[in-house]
């Protein structure tokens, strides 16, 4: 390939640019925001929230950018494994899992490091501009129209062999395709009405070596009564704790400091400790997430060649499960594999979308099955949902006390193995035996 265009220069677009750089002479990244060297320039409210990089996401970025973990740690990030990474369900802490390693870093800090690596590549350049549309040559996308910040020209055109949409959940590419007579992209949606809020706190030695603590509600009937307020904290750069609290519908958090601290005090031990022992830095930042959505490009019958979609533009699932960054990194891996297979870019990227949909479907299944347990979430329900929920509750309950099931469960949560591994008869039978012993 001679040139590829990546529309969107945040985490997903940067990972895509690195993958493309190994297969193309020139990669042009179109980024509308002037983010700045530290990633803290023009920023969306979502970018300032606490983000998780799951174990598989950490594996992916270290593979794509060798040595980046050490670079981040030397600059102030924290790396945790074993008991440094704590996942609570209904107030009960899961046993530590070997091989689960998580990075404590804010998204702007992580993204700035990735951006530096990508822009240091000799064949990648960043253009500060807005994508305005696609250009076509017969049955394929042949480039993009864009307006460059500060340019006297209202709109420019750039030809490319491949165009990558990494413009996030608000991407208009599906609309542009429909307007060009390419049909409608089938889209699934599930309204969840989630709200969450993030604040920073001073960090000392109050939690020892803890890097991550995450609290989630579960099937409470399977547990002793416990603390179920959803929230998480991470030890991040700058000697800070980053803390997020979340709630659905009319329980969504506000930017009120006292409300934020009250929620922290109703959460699990590590988060309560930070509320009691540490001082808040700055203000509380809020964000509302209305619905999960996935655009099923692999089901689009009139898809043109020369187009790939990844990141939130492809699928945006409930962020409370922390899958977004990892999903984007895995899709960049799919893009790398697709291009390495010698794909014909004049043809639709069906093979790429098929690969990517395997990861999207796994994330969608995990998040939406859990979301449907919320009383205000009204569907759509997948076939066999009641049986799935019953089995899922049994397995989740058993995972808190059974190390073997917990290891498998956490590897699914961290996207290292697909959810279907939890649905085997052997796993369910073991979960039922564990539940029977606990009830006795």
UniProtKB/TrEMBL annotation:
Source taxon at top rank: Bacteria
InterPro entries: FAD/NAD-bd_sf
SUPFAM superfamilies: FAD/NAD(P)-binding domain (SSF51905)
Protein name: FAD-binding domain-containing protein
Organism of origin: Streptomyces solicathayae
